[in-house]
Amino acid sequence: MLEAPGRLLPRPMSLCQAPDGELAFLIEAIGPGTRALCSLEAGDAIHVLGPLGRGFDLDVERPLLVAGGIGIAPMPYLASVLGGAPALLGFRTDRHAEAATLLPGAEVVVEPRLVTELLPDDPGDVLACGPAAMLEALQALVPGAQLAWEAPMACGYGACYGCVVEIEGRYVRLCVDGPVLRGGTQGSHTSPLLRGAAPIRRSGALAGHSPASPANDRPQLDGTVR
Amino acid sequence: MVPILNASGCLDALTAPEVAKSLDAFVTKTVTPLPREGNPPPRIAETEHGMLNSIGLQNPGIEAFVRQHLPQLASLGVPLWVSVGGFSADDFALLCERLDDLAEVEVIELNLSCPNVEEASEIASELVAAARAATEKLLYAKLSPATWDIAETARAVAEAGADGLSLVNTIRGLELDGKTLRPKLAFGSGGYSGPALRPIALACVYACARAVELPIVGMGGVRSGRDAVELVAAGASAVALGTVLFSDPSAPDRVRGELDAEAKSRGYLSAAAIRAVAHESSSPIAASAD
What is the ipTM of this complex? Predict the structure, then answer.
């Protein structure tokens, strides 16, 4: 969760890149919170809380990254830890498609063509992020695909019950049971995102977060990034 | 000492045990007689000066709560306040009876005022009387600020047997999507919390502290020790944190420290000594810079 200066609530963001000593986020300015984040200048400081929730399972044999629009955000990091996994990207406009430069070698389509048209017959292990319509299409086309969903979120650590999605007839909190879900088996893995990769003060305010999670070896980050 | 609690529904002690342990007491999310799935999403929206929520009392129901959640909560070692909610005197009686002989439960908070459920409640004093008849536990009545005379309600629930007041719940609000001009929340309206609620809460605490002798847990938009000290000055003996926990899980320790510093900088021995000073006729400090 990234503090959005001047706003009451932080904003949930996935990590885009993690070069040594840095965390990089790709943010589209679509509302007051994301605009505040995009207005930050070099040297500004914000509060960061993370890593939170259950991310992508990186123990996959044939990864295929699929992203739509700003859903490209987590893909550069995934590509780097998955040995340059192939990627399929879809965008609304040529201008949005400029983001594809973050993922050299990816196959790119622009609307009216859809990213799902690029799926091979045997897509392998799909890791996807994008708009709900794209994720729903993938859910039908690729059973078992790992899908990163999005919901309005106030806290990111299970406190507010605001970010629920309906799974098998029940409301589950996307922040603790997701944001990556996989039909039937969601929640069995936790992302190693940020493991040991952050220049952040660690005060452990959330140490012990999510006792059901196998991720107690993760560093708990709660601090300020400059 | 001025105890720092969480506002009901603003923290899950099982997903964030370290945050819960930093509180002087943990208040559960409201438990109802039967399980509730809650309201459909979207359930929250940020506004200019606060946030709206319409969670709709999602909870596992009293039986699953007592059997599954309570033992885990008790193992945290933090005093437990259980918030209960219902739609009739019978509901409150059933809930309080179920909790009555459970040693883990220190206080029962009666949620008399959730703005996110459609059922109409019976009047507060009847619900408190039913709860009082069902349990020996300490009973705190959580009241809505959306009443024309909250002091009258406070007197009524005190008469009916409440041991304390939790002031205040959220107040109903609505936010429309700027493009579609339709409600942002699936439920339509939601409970409004955050900084906008603070002066409203302060007025309620002030009014109730004049009306009844009961201890008061003050809450509503508290973000800092300065906010907390004002609730204490208005008459609160404890302060609860709500929306601030969403952006700052370390708020309990921070606010506790700031509150102590506020008291010392104003020449008081402790924050507790500030209680109700707003009701005293004259201030020892002639003028304040702000």
Answer: 0.91
Nearest CA in chain B to A7: B48
DSSP labels, A82-143: TTS--EEEEESSHHHHGGGGGSTT-EEEETTS-GGGG--SS--EEEEES-HHHHHHHHHHST
Average pLDDT, chain A: 83
Could you tell me the pTM of the whole model?
Answer: 0.88
Q: What pLDDT does B147 receive?
A: 86
Test B41 with A151 for CB contact under 8 angstroms. Answer: yes
Give yes or no for A133 touching B (CB within 8 A). no
pLDDT tens track for A76-125 = 999 999 998 999 999 999 999 999 999 999 999 999 999 999 999 999 99
> What confidence score (pLDDT) does residue B285 get?
58
Domain B4-39+56-173+193-279 class?
Answer: alpha beta
Cβ-defined contact of B15 to A159 (cutoff 8 Å): yes
**Could you tell me if A145 and A160 are in contact, meaning their C-beta atoms sit under 8 angstroms apart?**
no
Per domain, the residue ranges of chain B are 4-39+56-173+193-279
A205 vs B contacts (CB less than 8 Å): 18-19, 249-250
Q: Do A3 and B247 touch (CB under 8 A)?
A: yes
